[in-house]
Design a protein that fits this description.
331 residues; Peroxisomal Thiolase, Chain A, domain 1; five-stranded mixed β-sheet; 11 helices; 13 strands; binds oxa(dethia)-CoA
């Protein structure tokens, strides 16, 4: 049987500070009722530690994953860090995480695909396993969204939060692991969700700072329309081409951007809420953190042989879906 890439351990980290809807009500013109009914979010976590970036959370997530699997960092061959908020614009965040967790024999790289980054990372990491050349690949997904959010903009500040999760991929010859994936992108979408300045097109200047151009700008309704259609379509397609009926699916693992988008995807797949991983009410949208944090929260519910469908949509636009068979029972 061909070698597949199976998830064999999961780690996660969320900061302690809880930014609740009630606190946001005192910061911008919003209400708990609006946020809850439009997004499903009740609170999100914010990383408050001075000088700590995305790597701070990624390191903790990977350390937990290694401890649970009972292995050393030196056994890791490759570490991919999927993030939209690297510690620094140039130095690789993945390289820093790898060094800090003792992955002295690994190479590492960052992957930027906005909210689809973890899904892209999972599929990319799996390719390295499937070639037979790499035995232990870590994929970390995490973001410190609070570093790029304008807390005077009610259209974005109620949505995002900070957090990171990580998975370990190992070869499996019994059929468990990643079975299929569909990854898509369309650059026409970049006008709806972006940070205007700070990149090569419009480098930082006094003017860009004064105009608050270093924060996320989102045209919510436009993104919503694309997200609903594309996440649902790609998830239905991956079911179709793998002959999966709704009864065959143990869980949908959806990107946590908006409860209404998640519900629409589940409806299209014909699955009930009991089969949908959900933590948006507790963490908001952690961008690259959402999918691995879902696995982290639901790991105890998963059984060997469970069919999971991952689904994500993000800036760019980028989106996709993956079908994976879970490889272990809870310990
Ligand atoms: O993860 C990456 C991909 N991102 C997504 O998938 C996000 C997709 N978009 C969405 O989830 C939703 O569009 C949002 C949650 C961002 C917004 O929800 P919406 O139902 O699309 O609201 P809207 O933008 O159409 O705004 C409706 C009203 C507007 O007021 P008017 O023009 O009707 O008077 C907004 O100004 O709600 C207002 N509004 C708010 N009111 C209270 C916008 N933000 C807020 C707020 N509190 N925080």
């Amino acid at each position: 049987m061909a070698v597949k890439a199976a998830i064999t351990s999961v780690g996660g980290y969320i900061p302690e500070y809880r930014l609740t809807n009630q606190i946001l009500e005192t910061m911008v013109d919003t209400t708990d009722e609006w946020i809850t009914s439009r997004t499903g979010i009740k609170e999100r976590r914010i990383l408050k530690e001075e000088g700590a970036g995305t790597s701070f959370m990624g390191i903790k997530a990977v350390e937990e994953l290694l401890t649970k699997r009972g292995i050393e960092g030196s056994e890791i061959d490759l570490l991919i860090c999927s993030t939209t908020t690297p510690d620094m614009p140039v130095a690789s965040t993945a390289a820093y995480i790898a060094t800090k967790i003792g992955a002295t024999n690994a190479f590492s790289f960052d992957l930027q695909s906005a909210c689809s980054g973890f899904l892209y990372g999972l599929v990319t990491g799996s390719q390295f396993i499937e070639t037979g050349k790499y035995k232990k690949v870590v994929v970390v997904g995490g973001d410190k969204m609070s570093s790029i959010i304008d807390y005077t903009d009610r259209t974005t500040c109620v949505i995002f939060g900070d957090g990171a999760g990580a998975v370990l991929l190992e070869p499996n010859e019994e059929g468990y692991g990643l079975q299929d994936s569909i990854l898509k992108s369309d650059g026409a979408g970049r006008e709806f969700l972006y940070i205007k300045s700070g990149g090569s097109m419009r480098p930082p200047s006094h003017e860009t700072v004064e105009n608050r151009e270093h924060f996320v700008h989102q045209e919510g309704q436009q993104v919503f329309k694309f997200a609903v259609n594309n996440m649902a379509e790609v998830s239905a397609r991956i079911m179709d081409r793998n002959n999966l009926r709704s009864d065959d699916i143990a869980y949908l693992v959806p990107h946590q951007a908006n409860k209404r988008i998640i519900d629409a995807t589940a409806n299209r797949m014909g699955i009930g809420p009991e089969k949908v991983m959900l933590n948006i009410h507790r963490y908001g949208n952690t961008t690259n953190g959402t999918l691995p944090l879902c696995l982290w929260d639901y790991e105890k519910n998963l059984r060997k042989g469970d069919n999971l469908v991952f689904s994500a949509f993000g800036g760019g636009f980028t989106w996709g879906s993956a079908y994976l068979v879970w490889a272990y029972d809870p310990s």
